[in-house]
Amino acid sequence: MTQVSEATERSARAPSATSRARSRRRGLGVLALLAVVVLAATMPLWGLESYTLSVAYTVVFYAAVAQAWNLMSGFTGYISFAHGALVGIGSYAGVLAMNAGSGLVVAILAGAVTAVVSSLLIGLPSLRLHGIAFAFATIFFQAALLIAVQKAVPLTGGSQGLTAKDIVPLETLFIAMVVVAGTATLLVHLLRRSRLGLRLLSIREDETAARTIGIGTVRLKLGAFALSAMFAGAAGAVHAFFLATIFPQNVFTLQSSVEPLVLTLIGGTASAIGPVVMAAIYGISQEVLQQLGSELHLAMLGVVLVLAVLFARNGLAGLVTTWRDRRRKGRADD
Amino acid sequence: MTTPLQLLVNGIALGSLLAVVAFGLALVFGVMGVVNFLHAELLTIGGYVTYFLVTGTGAPALLGVALAVAVGLVVGYGVQRAVVGRVADRPPLDGLLLTYGLSVFGLGLITYFLTGDYRSYPAQFDGGLRLGGVYVAARDLVVLAVCVVLLLATGALLRWTRMGAAMRAVAQHREAAAACGINLARIDAVAYALGGGLGAAAGAILSTSFVTTPELGHQWLLIGFVVVVLGGLGSLVGVVAGGLVIGVLQVVLGYLFDDSWAQLQIYLLLFALLLIRPGGLARKAEAT
């Protein structure tokens, strides 16, 4: 958390030359990010085995949901336990849209829009609540949604699941997911040092102080939540076609909401690279640990969250920053 | 024939159980300021302890409740000393995330070692009493009696022992209590252990009427939170009243619609509660 105040301090004191260098560096960062996204999008053309591509797809999916969570909770500090639910809403809306005859792009948009609408429905009342009460509201939202989807049999098929009519090739889904994850990551990167991003971060640091200096916190929180839900919903729609059939008891799981939370908390909140690195580690380790059983993977996720809260509250990105600052200070002392 | 009186009786039995689940949560939150998600795993552990005791040795389920209390006390004390105690003076969200991580870890381990199988043992308490037009199952009577004993014992401990007075003092004002020479670390550990004991006892009682699965605790944890928010914190009477209200509500709504609709409606009720009186949890959290 000191990271932010340092950054604001530094930019307040900074002469224009360094601020120009900073904005040039940011421009380079955007270019590098775009290059990575474009490179990733060509992966289906590399002639990989479909198993390898599906592992890569899973990694990109985790990156997308982690960044979606990051856009809301990473910046504002309001911990959402409902992103699994938002992803699930996107999944159901996407499949329902496609089964009603729409194309893939429209289905993804339907997923995004439905998730945004739902986020406003939970956000409008509950974002006026503070930290813990908000976390609670999101937990109960997901629990209530699971029951509602199981009960709404005519629409969702209930526990029997809902199957997409068309099969979308993995290559197409992979590219779609890269676009979702890439755009979200780019937004995180741009927001980080923008005025809007700093205003969001000020909510995380001290909401009362932020309101006192005239920042419209409620509107900002709602906006961040909606933006975050848009990516969660889009990722959910794409993922539904990857799964082909979706079941409420598999979609609205505890795990689906813990994953984005842990990946981002550990990768580093409001960090663009951290959550993506964590998504890669998580997605690949899942393949390795699959032989041992998915329960152990869940247990590992819990251990990592515990360790992060105890020893690295600002995630890996925070550790890197601390280490770099210490090294810089060491060099200045020489 | 189900009469309103019958529903009331069933609701009171369920409500007393909910009060036990919620009291462990309220105690830990009141003293330490930690929203304790690990409570779910303690419920589950209590359920399995009883299941294995009853199926393994043929001992009565009531012995399982006693054993579960012992196991819960030890596990709670150990976990608090080893891990949870480290976040006692950190922002409340840290405690929530930490115990959430522990809960996910526990769920993973329990599922791995015990599999997701549904486990149950033969019903222990057959028959029942007919009083006027109301049939009270023996099982409900036993549940009610055990819950009342547990709540009274905890209440007495809080009310009449030095340790209990210290816990109430810490719940009122941590810093002031510490300034008076109360050892916060010790009181926190005792409160958490008590919470664990109550949780495991509740799980043990649940295993007599429901199947035990790794998810057992998670299914009951959310409704436990509803009771805590409704009943307010720190007051035994409030939690018991909250438990009874939710218990009766669950039974009546379950009768009018069905059980899962009832659950959905109770979750929505919590939503409304959070909005009307966010003080339920939030104000306390800000004060500590």
Write the layout of secondary structure elements.
The complex is a heterodimer of chains A (334) and B (288).
Chain A: H1 2-13, H2 16-41, H3 50-76, H4 83-99, H5 104-126, H6 131-151, H7 153-156, E1 162-163, H8 170-192, H9 195-205, H10 207-212, H11 217-243, E2 245-246, H12 248-251, H13 254-267, H14 274-289, H15 294-311, H16 315-333
Antiparallel strand pairs in A: 1-2
Chain B: H1 4-32, H2 39-57, H3 61-82, H4 92-114, E1 128-131, E2 134-137, H5 138-160, H6 162-172, H7 174-179, H8 184-209, H9 216-231, H10 236-256, H11 259-276, H12 282-287
Antiparallel strand pairs in B: 1-2
Give an overview in words:
The complex is a heterodimer of chains A (334) and B (288). With 334 residues, chain A is mostly helical. Chain A contains 16 helices and two strands. The longest helix of chain A has 27 residues. With 288 residues, chain B is mostly helical. In chain B, strand 1 and strand 2 form a beta hairpin. Chain B is globular, with a radius of gyration of 18 Å. The chains are: A mainly alpha (334), B mainly alpha (288). Chains A and B meet through helix 6, helix 13 and helix 15 of A and helix 4, helix 9, helix 11 and helix 12 of B.
Can you give the helix content of chain A as a percent range? over 70%
**Rg over alpha carbons of chain A:** 20 Å
Tally of helical segments of chain B: 12
* Secondary structure: number of strands of chain B: 2
Strand content of chain A: under 5%
Low-pLDDT ranges of chain A: 6-15
Low-confidence stretches of chain B: 281-288
Can you summarize the main beta sheet of chain B?
Answer: 2 strands, antiparallel
Radius of gyration of chain B: 18 Å
State the oligomer. Answer: heterodimer
Class of secondary structure makeup of chain B: mainly alpha
Helix content of chain B: over 70%
